């Protein structure tokens, strides 16, 4: 078993690194004299006589603002809060957690509580403030710390009670006060009890260890408790029998059904967002208000049977990597977390098939996901699940309804620990404590099984890349490992949740080498809540050492790909984070936050499926057609079915490994790897020729330098990446699959035999068909955009449209992936062509692809270059074909799908100027970028670090 040791990596929230970025460092500039940066210790300021509020509007920087007349706020606190409670109750939801301002007002009231409101106010402080490093948590921890220090008092909270409440805050701002209290004979027993169950300590562990070594008996007890895994053993085991009521959703539930894109703005507000779960009527599901509010009454009715609900479906969780989707399910079917407002964990999810990312996200949240045959289960059935025996019975009759095998026994530990992430962090803490006491590794936890003992005859490319990230030659399928995360991406609809998860993890500095945040999903038509995100999230990312893009810059992947290092591993909170070089394992926001914070990610190494192309690409056939050739061939080979019931999908949860395509640029490689998301693959590797990677990296170095010159931050993260790229280029060696590598299946695709375009028919990205099978269908709207496109696609479309006089018969949407593409297309005159034919030109970004902003008309038929065509994604009731930009352009001109012969005639025109059309943006050959880049110096420190890394 490979473990890089999260315990060690988490320590990488190092003092020096965090110190320069920390929120508290900002606070210290404005007179919080006692504030020290949260690194090794989080010193909470003494707030005697003054409370404060946190304002994030001014200068877009979190700032501490003292309110000399705080009572003015406090006096209206209860009235305003109760108004909010009533408004939320009218919507059928619980109030929001307290904001920093509300918490500050509450603190004032607690110092001198109005008669009769004591319990009410105290309960709010205890239960309605988010834990971790949320700003409100900071206010709460500061107040309690001041009580402990004796500089502030409350008739409701004595020193021991303050320690007790601090002990429920999980980590972050509460930690130092708890550790300091170990030196106080009165408070030490309470602090010790709390610390024994606190996991988010990071390098504060060493402070407790130092006290233990210096003879502090309470610290000794704590270390022993961690070594004995008391934090884990004190929690109840998963019961032998779980009785639940089935909430059955027929067919496929994709994450858009659970967390609809148009409601993305409300995702961080879990109870509010939950109202949109399954809001569109479908067989067996009765929304309270079709298209607006999901089946809340139906859920309440089922709960009256007296059991928690289990989410059950034929296929569950396909599509985007949305933590919000699991949040919504758990909000109705999970359990409360003590002292954590508006979040739940636990619950049971059963699927004939559960999409891998959704499965992992459920694990992270402490739910029990189980794959099994669900054909004997119906809505409202009460069932008994026997997790240790692998049987499900009808509660009333005892009839066996299904049998199953847990994916791994470790799931039982994950549920007990409250989730996979707490389990990993807790195991790390236990192992550190045992090391400190010179004890053998703990035997308390179940170990992952499944890896073959013997070394395989050869490793695949993915197995080698992950091996490299774990410091070994290769990693066999089934092996649990924790590869280093070199690059982590976050986009704007999952970003706010990732931010919340980072706060919960008490993270104030990233350990992953490069973390990048984009604003591609919400920039074009932002809601007020998106505007707040645009203003606040960049600073949150940069102050932790990450790189933040700006609204209007464009799509996450089109930028992140340009920051990649060959043969490295990463992740992203967007299911299309599918690196064209190296490998990415996209994940839900909880795991992405974990990867960014700790620099590693837990991974059960999946098996691989090889797709080998051979032969020569035929005229008119595009890379997008090859993307669709993969499901098309898999269907022919009997490895994939379109039907959901009993669905077969050889790619699901495996790594798609592609080889045999030569002379392909990295941009083209991404078009292919990107679509591995539609295959429900866990990840994707693609063999790209070395000269193309060298060309790409040289271009990207210039782009990154240009970014620094344009004031993007964090500049140090970009400098580190530039230095690493330059170091790799000095000795450009690429990993390769061994000839004897083993795959779960091999699919061969003969390019000589693909002579016409392949599309995906409405509304399923698996339903790949030849153009001749769908030709002639009338088309109303056409979308050319998304991360599947690059500048070449827009030139190709522009060249076809240039020949056309008048206005096209369709509504054509044009959305370039980045502002750089938009700049080139404008300079070259393509924007004027698009404008002349009546196209609607959108801001660079995701545009129609996610369907959360502008939408196609209801029930229209559409040709789209976007990634997926799930029902209602692009527009309500829309029928969406997925196709190449070239075919989409032809359809926009004809108003119908052409015949193959018609298409090939158009394609021949593009082909005649292919070298000009498919010219990619090589920034090192673009004068304005080169000029700006020339001004940027890379620090000696960054160069030295890169040299060291590559010399290992
Ligand atoms: S373009 Fe579409 S698939 Fe790509 S990142 Fe945006 S929403 Fe996701």
UniProtKB/TrEMBL annotation:
Residues 80-232 form the Aconitase B HEAT-like domain. Residues 549-895 form the Aconitase/3-isopropylmalate dehydratase large subunit alpha/beta/alpha domain. It catalyses: (2S,3R)-3-hydroxybutane-1,2,3-tricarboxylate = 2-methyl-cis-aconitate + H2O; citrate = D-threo-isocitrate. The keyword 4Fe-4S applies. PROSITE patterns: ACONITASE_2. Its cofactor is [4Fe-4S] cluster. One of its GO terms (biological process) is propionate catabolic process, 2-methylcitrate cycle. It holds the Pfam family Aconitase_B_N. Its EC number is 4.2.1.3, 4.2.1.99. One of its GO terms (molecular function) is aconitate hydratase activity. Gene3D superfamilies: Aconitase, Domain 2, Aconitase, domain 3, Aconitase, domain 4, Aconitate B, HEAT-like domain. One of its GO terms (cellular component) is cytosol. The keyword Metal-binding applies. Belongs to the aconitase/IPM isomerase family. Residues 245-454 form the Aconitase B swivel domain. Pathway: Carbohydrate metabolism; tricarboxylic acid cycle; isocitrate from oxaloacetate: step 2/2; Organic acid metabolism; propanoate degradation. Keywords: 4Fe-4S, Iron, Iron-sulfur, Lyase, Metal-binding, RNA-binding, Tricarboxylic acid cycle. It comes from Guillardia theta (strain CCMP2712) (Cryptophyte). This is Aconitate hydratase B. It comes from the Eukaryota.
